[in-house]
Amino acid sequence: MELKYLNSYSPAEILLLRNGYTVNLTDILKYTVIDLLFKDVIHFELVQHFEMKNKFFIQFSKGENFNDYQPRKQEQAFIHILSNIDEILLEDYLKKYFHHFKNEKKIKKLIVENYLNVYCERSLIDGIFNKYSRKSSA
């Protein structure tokens, strides 16, 4: 794959392509959240606990580009969570996200089938374990 094509993929897709199916769901989640924060689709702020002044929570809200952003398939769950509410705590946000993607194979399969199918293949053994392998030419 040539370097000039990398800008057409999200960081989570590049991570999956680079590391294969060994990537953790938490890493895909981190890269996707950082990418959406960088693109100003979502915004976060630290909120202080009302009783314990030394305890803080992370709260997500809609960013400036939230309404104009065209999400990729794996980002739609992130966007959908915030579409009906103004702000949400990180813990609640993650619960809703994991409710949508119940296991990591589901999101990996979604990414591969929609964006990386040119670079991945599936053998009989991979099919049994619901996995994909990177093509040798990728």
Low-confidence stretches are 123-130
State the share of residues found in helices, binned by percent: 40-55%
Class per helix and strand makeup: alpha+beta
N-to-C CA distance: 6 Å
Compute the CA-based radius of gyration: 17 Å
Strand order of the largest sheet: 1-2-3
User: Would you list the SSEs in sequence order as H and E?
Assistant: HHEEHEHHEHE
Number of helices: 6
Name the overall outline. Answer: globular
Query: What composes the largest sheet?
Result: 3 strands, antiparallel
Strand content: 15-25%
Total strand count, please?
5
Can you give the mean pLDDT? 75
Q: How is this structure best described in words?
A:
The chain is α+β, with helices and mostly antiparallel strands and about 140 residues long. It has six helices and five strands. The strands form two sheets. The chain has a three-stranded antiparallel beta sheet. A two-stranded antiparallel sheet has the order 4-5. The model is unreliable at about 125-130 (pLDDT under 50).
What labels would you give this structure?
138 residues; alpha+beta; two-stranded antiparallel ribbon; 5 strands; 15% strand
A few lines on this structure:
It is built from six helices and five strands. The chain is α+β, with helices and mostly antiparallel strands and 138 residues long.
SSE layout and pairings?
Blueprint: H1 11-19, H2 25-38, E1 42-48, E2 56-62, H3 76-83, E3 87-89, H4 90-100, H5 104-116, E4 120-121, H6 124-128, E5 133-134
Antiparallel strand pairs: 1-2, 2-3, 4-5
